[in-house]
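Morning F.,

Quick status update on the modeling queue. The single chain you submitted on Monday has been processed. Sequence for confirmation:
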Amino acid sequence: MKELPMFILIGLLFLALYGVSVFYIGWSGWKWMKPMISARFKWLYVVAVVFLASSFILGRFVGSVPAISILGSYWLAAFSLLLMLLPIVHLCLWLFRLTSLPRHRVQKWAGSITLLILASLLSYGTLNAYSPVVRSYEIRIDKQAGDLRELNVVMAADMHFGLLSGKAHAKRMVEEINTLKPDLVLYPGDIIDDNLDVYLDKGIGEIISGVQATYGVFASLGNHDKYKGRMEELISALEQSGMDILYDETVSVEGVTLIGRKDKTESDRAALETLMADIPRDGPIVLLDHQPYGLDIAADNGVDLMVSGHTHRGQIAPAHLITKALYENDWGHVQKGSFHSIVTSGYGFWGPPIRLGSRSEIVQITIGFSS
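Structure tokens below.
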């Protein structure tokens, strides 16, 4: 008998853990509702839990039914939060058994308070996701950039434009960027959310083409900038939105060299030293690389500033502890000698439009050069 491939075993293990977690959440709700509703509604509850638990996965395959994708996204947020809340609730219930308080009344209030906390967290997380802030950094590059003494760079990444990060969120981004009066705008990846058709059908490309920058808008691609057809078609569609895609390519802008790398997930991505083989090191070099890996490699090759996204700073706490452990710089500004790394938590979101412990943001970088 042949052994199952490792990825199938991992998939089965994931489904088993997910099933156990859904059962735990469903059982907790059942215990709370049991004294209050009839048997008929209890079975409706079971069906609802099964449907919700399947909605996130179904939404990835039933793209023609946006409601399922939206429901699945919110379920993912509720699922994550309930896995953190319910163990605390059950511990409190166990402690209350040591008191003389009526058990059924305590359980009833515990369920109601849990739902109230969940609703509050989802509301607050939605506010964080849809109300971006501007994060500002000032850095210095001790190189000459032609006649430039200073460059006002605005960066946005991980917009994930599509179903939930839609037209209104795109308009907010354009208005905020234009208010900052940028010399240069950079998008280091994940401009769309796996679906170019939604991006085009919603007219998001037309909206973000309204971004105004003195020296232009440049972008690299991320792991969610995917298309079923040829990559050239995706790049062409995005470039009609007023940006230049640097797909393992370099360009000189007013004495500043911009390098845009293919995403780390692409097997034919060129090595950084190959991309930089013919680039003079005496001028400022800015690298757009979606995933913030290889900071030392960038520094060793003479990159002055590397801008990235991808991490979302975990998006929903405490996932920020995971990103902090995975990346040397998962959010913010890190300087190593003359090399600078700036990672944004992202303008949009993946999955649910919820941010807890992170905030939707646009980054403004003021770069000073040698005279």
